[in-house]
Structures are given as structure tokens and as C-alpha cells.
Specification:
heterotrimer, A mainly alpha (332), B alpha/beta (270), C alpha/beta (326), B: 270 residues, alpha/beta, Rossmann fold, six-stranded mixed sheet, 10 strands, globular, C: 326 residues, seven-stranded mixed sheet, six-stranded parallel sheet, 11 helices, 13 strands, 45% helix, binds adenosine-5'-diphosphate, binds magnesium ion
């Protein structure tokens, strides 16, 4: 119980704030190394664009996961909700004639509503039925994917309106920035602000840090947690719509690991699985570290199996360092 | 009526002195299944006083505090604030009457700053549209927190560091200052020094006296008898869910308090 | 293809399906009218590949006067297939055509069928003891890879850089396609440079990311062989992003609605298509021979067709596009 010497307390403090900074530096270093080794291929506008675009859909889901994990929750259903939302959106767009902006708009609303619906179900299971989030969202993951397969008979649907694919999916703002990237940046910016600067974000972090303290201070904990799961579902639905635009297909079987990828990005970004500590900017970095490593390794010609080894090692190392930081903080 | 089983000590039966208690509870009953935690317990808090609430483990102290701070609803009995009857459906109801609590577990969010902890559930928003969108006024919250800490003489190096990075005594101080910031009448403190070392205990005890100096009544639960005798203006003893004795400052020594806690003395016969 | 699809979903599905499976797997076998009763047990229900096998078997059954029914597990696993197969055995049909889970897992149940005097024919996949079955009808994935290599080589005129987009290492079907493709390219097309195989992790997004990175390093890429529908869907996006549709030839494996659309749109030059319809038909023919006591072929390999924009109108080819219903 003795107070730490001032010097080491200051050091701890610096460690705490620098978690995000240090990850940002790591990412910058990675980019620097790859650019130095392969300036033409890695540093080209084309490559930058593909990496950014490739990460945008995952980023939208990971932003939602950041809020959920900030409350000390977990959402395993995002990939399945993405698929389900995409499937029902295609069905609705089909019913609206399968082309034209009216159909696209209807599909958009449908995807968001479907995602939000699953999120609400997750939230109700966690807050009302008191099913642990891990099990509740594992269950809804099965249900959402299963229903998507029931609706489609397990076969990917095509028939995504061409307008959607050529604009949102392939188009670029001012001919340079892909719309998918614009969408992800917009979601991320709003979410970063909401988490760090608004009462919504403050409740999210407080609940994750000590839900009992929040409850005793009059925060309606269950209602807020419900909103957070709904938000994660909504963003998964939005991601589903973006995925349709991108692949012109419902990609039913392609999202089995989305949940793990999103959670990995969130944790890598310094958000604690125990809740209470979370930043959206950290999540952005957490999405891009594996994406950049992957891209750089392919360009450098690293053998595929070694790519996996290296990426896995980097992830473990980053989270290990974060654990060291937390342990140091709790040592008194 | 005085019933004194402890030889040679005189104790008064009516220790109030005619003032109106800021908080009065009478006939409070609370059961958990077959366990009667409170059996028609009575309790008074007078303005500007430190009232110690003592009793053996399981006597019902924590339960009484929870009832009086709105965390739990009693099965029976009445609660009055400044002489008028009230009912507390939640801690917020009690807070509305100027009653706050420093919980034994502190109820702090360890990952958040002291300022964020001060304002849990009471966040200040910016004026205008931005505020309506939920934009926090971090500056104002930091300022109010700093003022409040300063008023009670608590020094913190960094108002933005997470509470978990503070020492146990500092954390306790943050929890006390937070409660005082929102409670102008009464603050309950459930064993505020039980987990602290000697130096930090001293510091927190000084803080408790400063709270009284600010005009806020303190209800102190403690097992530390010298501390109770030093700090308390009034001691009320709980045993098996009922109050068995009340002493004003100087009326009881450690032996008498222990005697009352163990049932050797009972002033109040029902 | 089905293995990849289902492996990914299996875990997720178990929970849901355990809770509320609906029954679209067909009803009980009708009483025989003198002909044989044969049931087909699919690898998994609701999969277009197995649906097509079923269609082929059903057509042959009609021709041969066989009383036909089919069943299948809700996901591609031994846990799902075992109770289904046991229930079918309990109905005492004359023969069971089955696409068993590979390895030992289904052996006890298959042995049960044999001791109950039921004839067995394996289709698409085989259990560890193939001799339980009167015949085994399947296409060879190494051959499929070879066929893809030949088609790709023709598209690129026999020279240039070619990338293989694999699924997830360790899946035997897709690994075999990679193997057949790479071996054929190396032995028969010396002017074609096969780049290091990249794996998508069985997700379209993974395929897009990998192919994009490869295109950054190799702007002169001539062709991509994408080993299953996931990789094809991802590769289309990468080529579109790189403005390389049509310049980089894209060859896929297996069909789906979006992929047929992409062939029409010119984003995919062609896909290798198996003949599940033929598999089902031949399996039924072998079954009837076995029941009649005639000699059967222990193993039959079905071949492939190449579906391209040019053959999209060709009934000989399009009949093999996998079906959602017969
Ligand atoms: N939530 C509860 N559920 C059941 N029994 C409880 C609960 N809270 C307290 N009790 C019981 O009520 C009695 C009084 O407990 P408490 O108020 O915590 O005593 P103290 O704080 O004086 O040690 C004890 O017998 C205790 O076991
Ligand atoms: Mg207690």
C-alpha cells in the first residue's frame, strides 16, 4: 500500500497514454520499412488505395465492436449479421425491381434495420435474459447465418443493382478516394467523437469499468448496454450493405472469421477486453497493422505460411506489451 | 428508561438535546428471507455532526446504510428528513434530499479520471445544440472537480490519470469528495479506513473532520474504536438489527462501546 | 467447394440448427411398387452441388423404375450425418447412395448398413474403407486443377505470370486443385511463371487483399486461378480496383449465381465446373447393377466442363451449372 515513488508513477502515466501512440509509431514504422524496401509497389497510390479499401468494411464492424468491448461485452455475431443483412437487402432490392436508386435506398434501409434488429436481440438477451454475451452472440451468430442460408438455400445471391456496385462499390470521390473508404472514415470519425467526447461514450466506458458504480450513480446500465449492442448490429448491417456493393454478392460463406478479426483489431488497438478502456483511433490502428503487414509481406514475396507466423507473432507481442502496461498500473 | 448492565457507568436515555435531526429513521424492518437484518431499528443524524454507527459483524450496519441511502427499500418503518417523512426508491431519491454515500467498495470506475468519476450519471454537457447531442463539457467538469477537491484539501497530481493509478487513500478521498460534492445534508461512509495503512488513515480522518466543517453531517461506520471515540460527536450502537445504545461525545469509552456491541449494555428496551 | 463453404459455417450453425431445424430434406420413403428402394444421403442439405447430384440420381431413378428419396444432415459434419444415415438404415431400403464424411468417422454406421444387407455406393467423397461400397463415383480434384491449368494456359497464350489464389491450406479438395494446377503448369508450360500461391483464408475479402498486393508487386500478371467461388468473388473486386478486368485472365472453379453474372459481364473468363448431375446418374446406375447382382465399376471418375461467356448459351455446358432445385 505504500505510495510509488513519483518517478515510477510518472512513468506509468506515460505508458498509459502512450499505448495508442506507441501503436501508431509501430504502424508508421511498418509502413516506413515496406516503403523503403519496395517504394514502387508498396508506396503506389494504387496500393495505398487497395489497402485502405480492403480494410474499410472490417473497420466499420470493428468500430461497433469497440463500443461493445468497452462495456466489457463481446459480440461474436457481427459477421453473420453482415451476411443476413446483405441477404435481406438483396431480397428487398429485388422486390423493388432489382435496379435503380429507389431499390438501392430500400436495400440500404433494410440492411440497417436488419443489423439493428439483431443487435437489439443481442442486447435484450444480455441485459434482460442475462445470457452471457459470449453465448448470446454465439447463438445469434448461428441464427443469423442459418436464417440467411434458409432464405437463400445456402447459395450466394447475385442481382445486386449495378448502380450500387459501380458507385459505392467501385466509385471514388473526386476520382481518388474510394467511396467505401469515405464511408468507413465517416463512421469512424463520428464514433471516435461519440466515444471520447459525448455522454454516450462516457456511459459506455463507465459501465465497462464498473457497472455497479454506474448503476448506483443512476446510469440506466441495461438500457445503455442495449443501445451499444444495437449500435454494433447497426454497423454490421451497414457493413453488410457495403459488402454487397463491393462484391456484388452476398458472400455467405466468407465471414466466418469477421468477428475474430474485429475483436483482434479492437484489442490490438489498446481496448481492454475487461472494459472501461477503449479508443476508436486505437481500433483504426488495430485494423491497419495486420492489413499493412499482410500487404507488405505479399509484396515482399514472404512465403504464405511465414506470413501467418509473422502476423500472429506481431499480434501476440502487441497485446503482451499491453498486458505489461496494465499489470504495472495495478501494482499498488 | 435506563437499563444498565455495565456496572458503574451512567448513560442518559435521551441524548438528542431538543434539536431536529437532519435524518431520522424509526422502526426500520428489513429481512432477507429468514434473516432479519434490521428489527425496528432507530437512527438519528444531527446536522453538522459526525455520527458513528457501530456494531458487531452482521449487526445490520451496512443494511441500515443501504436503506437510508436509497439502495434498498425497507420492509417497514419511517424515514424523515428535517422532520418530514420521505421514501427513497433509489440512491437518486436520497441524493435529491442531499444524502450521499461512500460505499465500502467505493463505487469508482477505476479506468476513468477523478473528474469523470465525480460526474458519473451527472455529466455536464456543453450549452446549446452540441450539448443536446451529448457533447460533454470536460473543462467545466474538471474545474468543478478541482474546486471540490481543493475545498476539502485533497491534492492530486493529475486530474486526468485513471483512478486506478491513485493510492488507496487518494481513491478513498476521491470517493468522499465526490459524495460530499453532491450531498449537502448527510454523507454515509462505510468503513472508509478499513483498507488503509496508518498514514493514509490519518489523512482520511482529517478529511472527514473537514467534511463536518463544511456543514455536512457524516455517518461513519467503523470498527476502529479509538477512531470512533476521537471523531464522533455521537455514537449509535446496533446489535442484532436494533439500536441498543446512543452516546454523545465523551460519554463512552472503548469498554462501554464494546459492552454495548456485545449485548452487555442495552439502553433501549422494546 | 462444398467443404470450404460448410467448414466455415459448421460451427456457427450447430447451435442454431440444434435449436430449430426445419425439415426440407424430403419425407419418408414411399412403399415400393416392386422396384428397388434407394435413398441418397447428401453431404449436407441445401447445397447446390449436392442438390445437383440428387437431381442426377433422381433422373436415373425415374428411368430405371427405382423408388428414390434423399436425406441429408444440416451441416457438413459426421455429427450431422450419422443420425440421418442411421434413420435411413432403419427404413431398410435396398440401397443407399451416400456422400460420406471422409476418414473413420462414418465407418461404424456404414458398416451397420452393410451388415443390414443394404447395398452402398459412394458419391463425391469416400470413407476410409472404400470396399464397403459397390462403386465410388467422383471427380478428381487434381484432374480439375490440371484442366484449369490447360484452360488458363490457352487464355494467356502459353506464357506470362500466373497466380494461384488458394482457399485455406489443409482443405483437401482445394489443395488438390492447387496441386494439379501448379504441377501441370510447371511440367507442360515452361514459359508460364507460376507465382507463390496466396491463400484467401476462404473469404472473398481475403482474396481481394492478397490479389491486390500481388498486383502491386506484379503489374504484369497475366492470369489468376481462383480455386473456389469465394476466391473468384474476391478476385473480381481486386481486378476491378486495378482496372485489370480482361487484361488479367480470371479462371475459377465451381459456379454460383453471382459468378455466372460475372461471366456474363466479362469479369471472369471461365470457371471449371464439375458434373454432379453425371455423378448422381452414374451412382444410381451402379447401384441398380449392384442390386441386380451384376458387376460394378469400383471407381468412376467424372470429368469437367469449362463455362465461359461463349458457352453460356450451350445447353451441353449449362446443364452442369449447379442447381438449387431439380
Ligand atoms: N443481500 C443480502 N442477502 C441476504 N442476507 C443479507 C444481505 N445483506 C445482508 N444480509 C444479512 O443481514 C445481516 C446484516 O448484514 P449487514 O448489514 O451487512 O451487517 P454489518 O454491515 O453490520 O456487518 C447479516 O446476517 C447478513 O448476512
Ligand atoms: Mg458491513
Amino acid at each position: 500500500m505504500t505510495a510509488l515513488p513519483l518517478a515510477s508513477r510518472v512513468q506509468l502515466r506515460r505508458l498509459a497514454v502512450s499505448s495508442t501512440l506507441y501503436l501508431a509509431v509501430a504502424l508508421a514504422a511498418l509502413i516506413g520499412v515496406f516503403t523503403a524496401l519496395e517504394p514502387e509497389a508498396f508506396g503506389s497510390a494504387y496500393n495505398v488505395r487497395t489497402v485502405l479499401t480492403g480494410a474499410s468494411i472490417l473497420l466499420v464492424m470493428a468500430v461497433g465492436a469497440t463500443f461493445v468491448i468497452a462495456t466489457a461485452g463481446i459480440d461474436l455475431s457481427v459477421g453473420a449479421v453482415l451476411v443476413f443483412s446483405g441477404v435481406v437487402a438483396v431480397k428487398v432490392m429485388d422486390a423493388f425491381g432489382g435496379s435503380g436508386w429507389g431499390a438501392v435506398g430500400a436495400g440500404f434501409v433494410t440492411a440497417l434495420a436488419a443489423g439493428c434488429g439483431w443487435g437489439l436481440l443481442n442486447g435484450l438477451l444480455v441485459t434482460r435474459a442475462r445470457v452471457p454475451a459470449l453465448i448470446a452472440t454465439l447463438g445469434t451468430m448461428g441464427m443469423a447465418l442459418g436464417l440467411a442460408q434458409v432464405i437463400t438455400g445456402g447459395n450466394d445471391l447475385g442481382g445486386v443493382p449495378g448502380e450500387l456496385v459501380t458507385t459505392v462499390g467501385q466509385g471514388r470521390l473526386f476520382g481518388t478516394v474510394p467511396w467505401l473508404v469515405v464511408a468507413a472514415v465517416a463512421v469512424t470519425a463520428v464514433a471516435a467523437f461519440a466515444l471520447a467526447k459525448t455522454r454516450f461514450g462516457r456511459y459506455t466506458l463507465t459501465i465497462g469499468s464498473n457497472h455497479e458504480a454506474a448503476r448506483r450513480s443512476g446510469v440506466r446500465v441495461d438500457r445503455h448496454v442495449l443501445k451499444v449492442y444495437a449500435l454494433a448490429g447497426l454497423l454490421a448491417g451497414f457493413a453488410g450493405f457495403l459488402s454487397l456493393a463491393r462484391f456484388a454478392s452476398t458472400t455467405i460463406a466468407g465471414h466466418g472469421t469477421d468477428n475474430l478479426q474485429a475483436i483482434t483489431a479492437v484489442v490490438l488497438g489498446g481496448t481492454s477486453l475487461f472494459g472501461g478502456v477503449a479508443t476508436v483511433i486505437g481500433t483504426v490502428i488495430g485494423v491497419f497493422i495486420p492489413a499493412v503487414l499482410q500487404n507488405g509481406f505479399v509484396i515482399l514475396g514472404v512465403k504464405p505460411f511465414w506470413q501467418q507466423v509473422a502476423i500472429g507473432a506481431v499480434l501476440v507481442a502487441a497485446v503482451y506489451l499491453d498486458q505489461l502496461r496494465r499489470r504495472a498500473r495495478q501494482q499498488h | 428508561m435506563i437499563r444498565c448492565l455495565y456496572k458503574g457507568v451512567q448513560v442518559p436515555a435521551e441524548p438528542s438535546g431538543g434539536r431536529t435531526p437532519v435524518l431520522r429513521a424509526s422502526g426500520i424492518v428489513k429481512s432477507f428471507g429468514h434473516v432479519e437484518a434490521l428489527r425496528e431499528a432507530a437512527f438519528e443524524v444531527y446536522p453538522g455532526e459526525i455520527t458513528a454507527l457501530i456494531g458487531d459483524n452482521g449487526a445490520g450496519k451496512s443494511t441500515l446504510v443501504k436503506v437510508l441511502s436509497g439502495v434498498m427499500q425497507p420492509d417497514g418503518g419511517t424515514i424523515e428528513v428535517d422532520g418530514s417523512p420521505v421514501q427513497f426508491g433509489s440512491p437518486q431519491d436520497a441524493a435529491g434530499h442531499g444524502i450521499g454515500t461512500v460505499y465500502q467498495d467505493l463505487a469508482l470506475a477505476p479506468d476513468l479520471s477523478p473528474a469523470a468519476n465525480f460526474f458519473i450519471g451527472r455529466e455536464l454537457l456543453r450549452p446549446g445544440l452540441l450539448g443536446r447531442l451529448g457533447w460533454l463539457d470536460a473543462g467545466a467538469m474538471n474545474r468543478r472537480t478541482a474546486e471540490e477537491l481543493q475545498r476539502l484539501g485533497v491534492e492530486l497530481k493529475d486530474l486526468n490519470a485513471p483512478v486506478a493509478s491513485l493510492s488507496g487513500g487518494q481513491r478513498q478521498s476521491v470517493a468522499i469528495c465526490r459524495a460530499v460534492a453532491w450531498a449537502e445534508r448527510v454523507v454515509f461512509m462505510d468503513e472508509p479506513t478499513a483498507a488503509l495503512g496508518v498514514v493514509q488513515t490519518e489523512r482520511v480522518m482529517r478529511l472527514i473532520t473537514r467534511v463536518r466543517e463544511q456543514g455536512v453531517a457524516v455517518v461513519l461506520i467503523s470498527h476502529n474504536m479509538p477512531q470512533v471515540i476521537e471523531l464522533a460527536d455521537r455514537v449509535q450502537v446496533l446489535r442484532l438489527g436494533s439500536r441498543v445504545a446512543t452516546y454523545e461525545r465523551g460519554q463512552a469509552d472503548e469498554h462501554l462501546l464494546v459492552a454495548a456491541m456485545t449485548g452487555a449494555v442495552n439502553q433501549e428496551v422494546r | 467447394m462444398k467443404k470450404i463453404v460448410t467448414a466455415g459455417m459448421a460451427g456457427a450453425l450447430v447451435l442454431f440448427l440444434a435449436a430449430c431445424g426445419d425439415d426440407d430434406g424430403g419425407g419418408a420413403t414411399a412403399e415400393g411398387d416392386g422396384g428397388y428402394e434407394v435413398v441418397y444421403v447428401q453431404g449436407v442439405t441445401g447445397n447446390p452441388f449436392f442438390t445437383s447430384v440428387t437431381c442426377g440420381a433422381e433422373a436415373a431413378a425415374t428411368d430405371l423404375g427405382v423408388d428414390f428419396d434423399y436425406q441429408g444432415g444440416k451441416d457438413y459434419s459426421a455429427e450431422a450425418q450419422t443420425p440421418i444415415l442411421q434413420a435411413v438404415i432403419a427404413q431398410q431400403p435396398d440401397g443407399i447412395i451416400v456422400s460420406p464424411m471422409a476418414g473413420e468417422a462414418m465407418m461404424p454406421t456404414l458398416t451397420e448398413a452393410q451388415s443390414a444387407g443394404i447395398e452402398l455406393v459412394f458419391v463425391d467423397t469416400t470413407a476410409s474403407d472404400q470396399s464397403l461400397a459397390a462403386s465410388f463415383v467422383a471427380s478428381d480434384n487434381v484432374e480439375g486443377g490440371r484442366f484449369a491449368a490447360e484452360q488458363t494456359a490457352e487464355l494467356v497464350g502459353g506464357s506470362g505470370k500466373v497466380l494461384v489464389l488458394g482457399a485455406t491450406p489443409g482443405i483437401s479438395t482445394t489443395d488438390a486443385r492447387v496441386e494439379g494446377f501448379v504441377e501441370t503448369m510447371e511440367s507442360e508450360y515452361p514459359d508460364i511463371e507460376v507465382l507463390e500461391t496466396q491463400y484467401s483464408g476462404s473469404t472473398p475479402a481475403g482474396a481481394t487483399d492478397k490479389l491486390s498486393a500481388v498486383l502491386s508487386a506484379n503489374p504484369d500478371l497475366a492470369a489468376v486461378f481462383a480455386v473456389s467461388t469465394q476466391e473468384v468473388e474476391g478476385a473480381i473486386v481486386a481486378l476491378e480496383q486495378a482496372d485489370a478486368v480482361g487484361t488479367v485472365q480470371l479462371v475459377g472453379f465451381d459456379t454460383s449465381d453471382p459468378i455466372v453474372e460475372a461471366i456474363e459481364a466479362g469479369s471472369v473468363q471461365g470457371v471449371v465446373v464439375q458434373k454432379p448431375l453425371d455423378m448422381g446418374r452414374q451412382a444410381m446406375e451402379q447401384m441398380v447393377k449392384a442390386l441386380d447382382g451384376e458387376a460394378t465399376e469400383a471407381q468412376i471418375e467424372t470429368d469437367y466442363v469449362f463455362l465461359t461467356a461463349a458457352t453460356l448459351e450451350d445447353e451441353d455446358v449449362t446443364q452442369y451449372i449447379y442447381r438449387n432445385e431439380c
